[in-house]
Write a structure and sequence with these properties.
Largest sheet: 7 strands, mixed
Number of domains: 2
Strand order of the largest sheet: 3-9-8-7-6-4-5
Structural class: alpha/beta
Number of strands: 13
Order of helices and strands: HEEHHHEHEHEHEHEHEEHHHHEHEEEH
CATH topology of the largest domain: Aspartate Aminotransferase, domain 2
Strand content: 5-15%
Shape: globular
Helix content: 40-55%
Distance between the termini: 47 Å
CATH architecture of the largest domain: 3-Layer(aba) Sandwich
CATH class of the largest domain: Alpha Beta
Number of helices: 15
Amino acid sequence: MTARKSGPAGRPDPLAFLDDEVAALHERHLYRRLRVMSSAQGPIVSVDHRRLISLSSNDYLGLTHHPRLREAALAAVREFGVGSGAVRTIAGTMTMHEALEAELATFKGTPAALTFQSGFSANTGVIPTVTGETDLIVSDALNHASIIDGMRLSKAPRQIYPHGDVGALREILREARATGRPGGGPYRLILVVTDGVFSMDGDIAPLRELVEAAEAYDAAVMVDDAHASGVLGRNGRGTVDHFGLHGRVAIQVGTLSKAVGALGGYVAGSLALREILTQRARPFLFSTSNPPAVVAACREAIRVMEDEPELQERLWANTRRFKAELTRLGFDTGRSETPITPVMMGDPDVAGHFSDRLIEEGVFAQPVVFPTVALDQARIRTIVTAAHADEQLDVALAAFDRVGRELGLISG
């Protein structure tokens, strides 16, 4: 136990216990040092003064550096400045925010959309706004932390079904409709919430089956398409489009910071959903909206995704090749179906050492350990993008081969 340290003016430091918690993370090999990047994001980055091939970015389509997005952002700064002033209910809503939301609604095939400062704030805004004490939230066990926090902010009770287990979901829904609320009476709303693509495993939710189960018990479905936007569906419209479920998913959430290449989040759905969010969603009401450069870049990104489908095609070609080669080498990539490809290690110490050795070999791929994943599910999480050249993937695969053999994770 750390001795109680003195703070300002010799008083005991009430936060001294944090030293013990940090020390415990080091002892359990769960401490993650922040790697310092001194270059722009891209397939080649400078990290800790080394030039490395990056397999750690969510910039799926390489739009962060797309010339059309750059020019759109610069033009917006020249005309509108660098900030939006305050929250939209106080300083006023800029025309560009309204335009982006109209374009997002068209892109997603919904009547309306509303933007937030991030995908995280979108989830923590929409879930507690649309659910309350008379409702029930039913969530996949591996849903993103933002969904979990959104549920915690809601007064609605919640139930968790095992990851991807549609049978278990059906049983929860059947019982909920049969028995009703613990205090008596039927649930006003049962909301089934799932990621579209799961961010640590790279698998796709069985959305069609989830929707059919929800419809059988008069429940609504909400899907977080953070890692499906730009990746799945026509021109990257997401899992609802991928499965042909337009009009059958009540709420779609997405980010503008991954495949879109900029920053922000959005909720797409009915006009009434947008209206109630503008009145009650706390992240919308109490956080300044995204600045003009970000909004303009997001608008241009939607146009680029529709104009340049070859970016999505290149992303998937790189994904298929990289995933197949890792499997051929003998690595376990779990249940991944998308550009998110985990290389399973199990032991967090092994994952950390593997990542360090990859950096020495010229590859930047980060370990993911508890609490992001279970204690025995540590992994190296990789993502290839449309911007990676064949030669860069060759170098990365050769590094995985060398380090994997060195550490005895694969054999010749």
